[in-house]
Amino acid sequence: MQQRLGQIGVKVELNVTDWPTAVKVGWSPQGWNLFTHGFGIEPFEGPATVMSAWVNGSSQQKDDPEIDRINTALGAEMNADKRKTLFAEFQQHMVDNAVALKVGNYGLFQMGTVKLHNFEPYRIPRMWGVWLDK
């Protein structure tokens, strides 16, 4: 990717890191202009958890009153349809303001031994009802 971007005149330095390093670098204001990571497991936890990473400017290093407003409204709303609407507003705000952009999909990088039974590959491994032969 770095070479291809260089061919069109975009000078980039790509750094691949482990998660602790990504958190240290990505949640600090120094040394980067665009930070990417595999943010994507959170939807199984619900919209409030997804939104929380950006509340009070924590992930983008800048306060965003609209994200804070939507988060506060979501936390106070009990109607499921209204909560869905608020989360849709949050998602649209993220795209419209380039706060976070989807740049691809995760594949499945899972494998197992033939001794593994009842395992179904999934975005996040599910191990309920899975067993190994002895």
The percentage of residues in β strands lies in under 5%
Biggest pleated-sheet summary = 2 strands, antiparallel
Query: Which spans have pLDDT < 50 for at least 5 consecutive residues?
Result: none
Q: For the record, give the distance between the C-alpha atoms at the N and C termini, rounded to a whole number.
A: 44 Å
Helical percent range? 25-40%
Shape: flat
What's the rounded overall pLDDT mean? Answer: 84
What is the total tally of β strands?
2
H-E order: HHHHHEE
How many DSSP H or I helices? 5
Strand order of the largest sheet: 1-2
Kindly name the structural category: mainly alpha
Evaluate the radius of gyration.
Answer: 19 Å
Q: Would you summarize the structure shown here?
A:
With 134 residues, the chain is mostly helical.
3D structure, described in words:
The protein is mainly alpha-helical. The protein is built from 5 helices and 2 strands, in the order H-H-H-H-H-E-E. It has helices at residues 2-7, 19-26, 47-52, 65-76, 80-96; strands at residues 116-117, 131-132. Strands 1-2 form a two-stranded antiparallel sheet. Helix 4 (65-76) packs antiparallel against helix 5 (80-96). The longest helix is centred in the middle third of the chain and has 17 residues, at 80-96. It starts with a helix and ends with a strand. The mean pLDDT is 84.
